[in-house]
Design brief:
The protein contains 14 helices and 5 strands. The protein has 351 residues and is of the alpha/beta class.
Length: 351
């Protein structure tokens, strides 16, 4: 049986890593791809296979996670000190660095020294949602292992297991709105998510249905939903940290990181849903209802879709996707970026 059989899909990554287990690993790997698709799970399974253990905790397995917004040099220095200790139980030590795309410049330079000349017994696994911030030099020292968004079928299997009593349309919509990411599915299954999705659809429709549409108010809807999700994430992280004996500063940084990460992810997820709504207007407008993402909102989509709105809806979907890319890649003011987006959408669709 494969070491990774419990993880859905990701066949290319599994093939590369199974070969490494059979033939001997490289000294460093860089797992890259979207969040919520199994990178951390496979990294831990790979580490356990290399250490020939089935334990979740092992003295020769070292994991490093960001504190706050980045991995700072002190954390990398601590990892490097550990890196030069001989294995405790076997002939290998495995190091997993989560959030490697959040390595600070000094931390990145420090880690590079050991990527260039690692101890022979060490295997270093970097995990990144985004390759962009990682230096070309670090990339060149690692074997790249790509991860993809999961298929709708794979996500649907999880949906069917989690909410078997939901209608088929609801389950299909959940699988499609999740966009191939299980972390997004968890967000959608959160009780507060349904209300946020209702508000998002309402404001998406108001662009072309409400004569008194206001771009500032529309932007505030998305920002308020993101803040709600951030507060929910804060409460979860506080409960988790209460079970740990952490220094006050570290606990505070973890809470802030959870808040900021949830707020940003919620905003990006809302934009994906928004683009999906306008894309669905096109799909339904040409009679391809079964391909809609928001299949559980078909009554509303049929009421809104029309031949006259096809070009505007197609352009609107692209405007939202472009806004998503700008917010994902650059440190922009969310308020201003969203207001500008809603102004463009209103001009395109208010006919």
């Amino acid at each position: 049986m494969s070491s990774f059989s419990a993880v859905r899909e990701q066949q290319e990554a599994k093939r590369l890593l199974e070969a490494a287990i059979a033939d001997g690993p490289a000294h460093a790997y860089l797992f890259h791809g979207p969040a919520g698709v199994g990178k951390s799970t496979i990294a831990r399974l790979f580490g356990r296979a290399l250490l020939k253990t089935d334990r979740d905790v092992h003295p020769d397995l070292y994991e490093l996670e960001p504190l706050g917004d980045m991995i700072r040099i002190d954390a990398v220095r601590e990892l490097r000190r550990d890196l030069h200790m001989r294995p405790f139980e076997g002939d290998r030590r495995v190091y997993i660095v989560h959030g490697a795309d959040r390595l600070g410049t000094d931390a990145s330079d420090s880690l590079l020294k050991d990527l260039e000349e690692p101890p022979p017994y060490a295997v270093i696994i970097l995990i990144a949602d985004d390759l962009g911030p990682i230096s070309a030099t670090i990339r060149s020292r690692c074997q790249l292992v790509p991860f993809r968004r999961l298929s709708e079928r794979a996500v649907r299997e999880v949906v069917d297991a989690r909410v078997p009593d939901a209608s088929p349309e609801r389950r299909t919509a959940l699988a499609r709105v999740a966009g191939g990411r299980l972390d997004r599915l968890e967000r959608l299954l959160d009780p507060g998510s349904a209300a946020r999705r209702d508000r998002l659809v309402e404001v998406a429709r108001s662009v072309y249905r409400d004569p008194a549409f206001d771009s500032t108010s529309a932007a505030e809807v998305l920002l308020e939903c993101a803040k709600e999700r951030a507060e929910h994430a804060r409460a979860i992280e506080e409960a988790r940290i209460a079970q740990l004996d952490l220094p006050e500063k570290e606990a505070e940084q973890r809470i802030k990181r959870a808040q900021r990460g949830a707020e940003r992810d919620e905003l990006l997820a809302q934009l994906e849903e928004l683009a999906g709504w306008y894309r669905d207007l096109v799909v339904v407008g040409v009679g391809a209802e079964s391909a809609a993402i928001h299949l559980d909102r078909m009554e509303q989509l049929k009421a809104d879709a029309s031949r006259e709105r096809l070009v505007g809806a197609e352009n609107a979907a692209e405007f939202v996707r472009a806004a998503w890319r700008r917010l994902e890649e650059f440190n922009l003011s969310s308020q201003l970026a969203l207001e500008a987006l809603w102004i463009r959408l209103h001009r395109e669709l208010a006919t």
